[in-house]
Amino acid sequence: MKARLYRTLLFAAYQAVLLLGIVTFPLALVAERAGLSLPVGRLVERLGEAHERASED
């Protein structure tokens, strides 16, 4: 039961971060022109990997 809840919460967090990435995309383009980068891509990748690991168990 706890594993299922954990996987569900990871999936929800993954989806929320994807939405955050989509919403902040215009800001990321402006930040890139200024020489800055937003770490949303790394966050999406790490949450995706965590969800995959949790799904394997």
What does this structure look like?
The protein has helices at residues 2-23, 25-33, 40-56. The chain has one domain (2-56). It is built from three helices and no strands. 84% of the residues lie in helices and 0% in strands. Helix 1 (2-23) packs antiparallel against helix 3. The chain is mainly alpha-helical and 57 residues long. The protein is elongated and about 45 Å long.
Question: What is shown here, in short?
Answer:
84% of the residues lie in helices and 0% in strands. It is mainly α and 57 residues long.
Q: State mean pLDDT (0 to 100 scale).
A: 88
Contiguous helical run count: 3
User: So what's the overall shape?
Assistant: elongated
Number of domains: 1
C-alpha termini separation = 12 Å
Q: Please write the string of helix (H) and strand (E) elements.
A: HHH
Number of strands: 0
Structural class, judged by helices and strands? Answer: mainly alpha
Low-confidence stretches: none
Percentage of β-strand residues? under 5%
Rg on CA atoms, Å: 14 Å
Helical content class: over 70%
Give a quick account of the main beta sheet: strands, pairing sense, barrel closure. Answer: none
Output the keywords.
mainly alpha
SSE layout and pairings?
Elements: H1 2-23, H2 25-33, H3 40-56
Helix pairs in contact: 1-3
